[in-house]
Amino acid sequence: MAVQSMTGFARHEGEVQGCRFVWELRSVNGKNLDVRLRLPQGFEALEQPVRKAAAAAFARGNIQVSLSVSAVASAVEAVVNEAALEAVIDLVARLADRVDARKPALDGLLNIKGVLEFRDPELSETDREGRDRAVLGGFLAAVEGLKAMRQAEGAALAAVLGRQVNEIERLTLKVEADPSRSPEAIRARLAQQVAALMDTGAGLDRDRLHMEAALLATKADLREEIDRLKAHVAAARSLLAGEGGAGRRLDFLAQEFNRETNTICSKSNAASVTAIGLDLKVLIDQFREQVQNLE
């Protein structure tokens, strides 16, 4: 399964056993999988299979699932409430000696509230099970639609993230190639600092001063941070090209990108490197924001 976004929408309609049903699925970002389900009365048996199917298809995201059901007009039954009809006929008979009126017509009786009722036909247990299977099949079709949309958006996001990773690599290489990092530049800068201290006449020990300068030069070296950034770039590309949910791991890499960049900025002794580090931080923030949309 390719990289997926966590946002999407799907709708599926169907008709079975005299009813029309509509599934609607809406998905947004979430740390874990959270399925919120709304089913009409009489369809409670679908809750567990629906949750199971959603969990099999998606790993993360807040997914709202709703099912609406309406009766097909031709499937509605007209049913006479026998008790209400008998009560009306009995009342007419008891009032016949007291009221001079014509006998009630059939259409008049049927127009009395409660005598004629319209309702969905009663289903047998077998018919109900068949209906539920068909409605569940509609949900599975909606899941496939949602999955396709999340994958399409995931592919678009992966392209954006891929370009950002390329830019992170470019800026990393720019730090690596910065003239301030050349051994000659570092030696010249330290020599100037040592000379300035010696000129103060503070009685500093020359050997100790050179030792401290060498230690400072080692601490200021950015080789490890640059190598780790390159490794993180390779890992990000592998995740974007791979299968399955990569959102959490890419989010972790974004934190690692940020950690190494912060170290580069803190160790930098050149304005040019610091400026590149700040550009990296802005880019990594944008990368991490986009990663939040991935499953």
Automatic annotation (TrEMBL):
Domain Endoribonuclease YicC-like N-terminal, first and last residues per copy: 3-158
Family: Belongs to the YicC/YloC family.
Superkingdom of origin organism: Bacteria
UniProt keyword ATP-binding, yes or no: no
Residue ranges crossing the lipid bilayer per the database entry: none
Coiled-coil region list: 212-239
Protein name: YicC family protein
One Pfam family cited in the UniProt record for this chain: YicC-like_N
Any GO MF annotation of the entry: RNA endonuclease activity
Cofactor(s) for this UniProt protein: a divalent metal cation
Domain Endoribonuclease YicC-like C-terminal: 180-295
PANTHER family: UPF0701 PROTEIN YICC
Keywords noted in UniProt: Coiled coil, Endonuclease, Hydrolase, Nuclease
The keyword Hydrolase appears for this protein: yes
